[in-house]
Amino acid sequence: MSTTATLTKQFMSSEQLLEHWQGHRNLTRRVIEAFPEKDLFEFSIGGMRPFAKLAAELISIAGPALKGIVNKNMGAYTEDGFNPQTKEDILKKWDEETEVINHYFSQITEERFQETFNLFGQYEFPVYQNILYFVDNEVHHRGQGYTYLRALGIEPPFFWERF
Fold it and tell me: For residue range 33-47, what is the model confidence (pLDDT) as tens digits?
């Protein structure tokens, strides 16, 4: 009986994944910038949250979750720690969290990406799937932001211009 070894080729490096994610974050930042301040905090359609609330959610997930993954310690999800009052508050915190993401992402080894992690005590998936969830959630909410901007008569940034 003979055996055949299968070589698994890597689709994407961790550096490429981070670059992809940060590209999405760059675009979402530009969506935040496109909003008039009042509308950022007040405008909504169909009972959806204003975009400032969606941005606060994204800020409250990514950095804290990566820190929890690296430290193998994850508490419950909360947005209580960040209550922005201005667009400037959101953009400043967005930029700070970008650095937090870079810092903690670089500490995740290739092997850790395959380990199961219970995100916020709710979602038990491999680390790489948790990170893809962060990206998916951001894209979803950014789509809401695009809808708001168009309803306000504002042309949103092109979705393919992520850098």
Answer: 999 999 999 999 999
Q: Which fold has domain 14-151?
A: Four Helix Bundle (Hemerythrin (Met), subunit A) (1.20.120)
Q: Name the residue type at position 35.
A: F
Q: What is the rounded distance in angstroms from the CA atom of residue 67 to the CA atom of residue 100?
A: 8
CA-CA distance, 136 to 6, in Å (whole number)?
A: 31
Is 140 annotated to bind a ligand? Reply is no
pLDDT for 101-142, tens place per residue? 999 999 999 889 999 988 877 778 999 999 999 999 999 999
Dist. CA 78–CA 81, nearest whole Å: 7
Q: How crowded is residue 57: how many other Cβ atoms within 10 Å of its Cβ?
A: 17
Q: In this structure, what DSSP letter does residue 36 have?
A: -
User: Is 21 in contact with 13 (CB distance < 8 Å)?
Assistant: no
Query: With a threshold of 0.85, does the pTM exceed it?
Result: yes
Helix (H, G, I), strand (E, B) or coil at 126: strand
For residue 112, give the DSSP letter: G
